[in-house]
Design goal:
Order of helices and strands: EHEHEEEHEEHEEHH
Mean pLDDT: 85
Largest sheet: 8 strands, antiparallel, barrel
Shape: globular
Strand order of the largest sheet: 1-5-4-3-2-6-7-9
Helix content: 10-25%
Strand content: 25-35%
Radius of gyration: 23 Å
Length: 283
């Protein structure tokens, strides 16, 4: 699955106005969305940039093996997404989790509330919209935290909450939202909470209260040029319709980078840093 994306910003003062405009444009009532997003990072560290080009070996290595050895391994952050309702907040449990449950009663008409989400870094194409690969897997049983820890293996990083409203116009999914977090305990957690805290205890990540407007079209067959072009054109048509209300634009792809960055170990000096330090002495 690939996503075609455009983004805009809506000030807190204009939120209600834009919500009504989107409701009229999409001919539907806004659907309130509450989510918890838990971030996981791979246990192992990424390789030093360029290290895949310096690996040793004999000159008799097969071509296929040589091509594999010159391909750097990328590591990515992944998300565990939980669908929430107002009743899920403030149940008084503040312990780190080992007992989250994703069990689903299909006979009772329940839908999966947990899913694992991977979002790739957007590509470098120039189509006027952001395009990235994404994959979401519903979890229908067991402990979702344990699943994420063992599947990587991964380790817990942090968690945050998303509050907003969703609309659908044709194939365009519009999500007007903002991000909330619990700053007092966020850096002290070793795992996700069993239950979310009271909603009133959450604070805005952006203190200005600005909302993010995400316009998205999902494309299943990315290699079909006609399908891709139709998706891009529909998203751009929505962008044109929103002019004067919300300016949608193509974000910098590096701000949406989900890769784990390589960091030098403490005390390690790179060759470039050593040469820079010796340069004044050689003058």
């Amino acid at each position: 699955m690939h996503e075609l994306l455009l983004y805009g910003q809506v000030s807190a003062a204009r939120h209600d106005q834009v919500l009504k405009i989107l409701a009229g444009f999409a001919a539907m009532q806004p659907r309130r969305i509450l989510q918890r997003r838990i971030i996981y990072r791979p246990e192992r560290e990424p390789e030093e940039p360029g290290s895949h080009l310096r690996r040793g070996g004999t000159q008799n290595v097969a071509v296929k093996q040589k091509q594999q050895s010159t391909t750097p391994t990328q590591l990515y952050y992944t998300h565990l997404v939980q669908k929430l309702s107002d009743e899920d907040f403030g149940k008084g449990d503040s312990k780190a989790s080992e007992t989250l449950s994703a069990d689903v009663d299909f006979e009772g008409g329940q839908e999966p509330r947990w899913s694992s989400l991977f979002e790739d870094m957007p590509d470098t194409g120039d189509r006027g919209v952001s395009i990235r690969f994404t994959n979401s897997t519903d979890l229908i049983g067991g402990d979702p935290h344990t699943f994420m820890i063992t599947s990587g293996p991964n380790r817990f990083v942090t968690e945050y909450y998303v509050e907003g409203h969703r609309f659908v116009h044709g194939n365009v999914v519009v999500f007007l939202h903002r991000i909330l977090h619990e700053p007092a305990v966020r850096n002290l957690q070793t795992g996700p909470k069993v239950n979310p805290p009271a909603f009133d205890s959450l604070q805005l990540l952006d203190q200005s209260g600005t909302y993010i407007l995400e316009a998205k079209v999902r494309v299943q067959d990315f290699k079909d040029a006609s399908v891709l072009e139709a998706g891009v054109n529909e998203l751009k048509a929505f962008q044109t319709s929103m002019r004067g209300c919300v300016e949608l634009s193509l974000p910098d792809r590096l701000t949406m980078d989900t890769r784990v960055k390589y960091k030098l170990a403490p005390g390690v000096v790179t060759k470039a840093q050593a040469q820079q330090a010796q340069a004044p002495q050689n003058r």
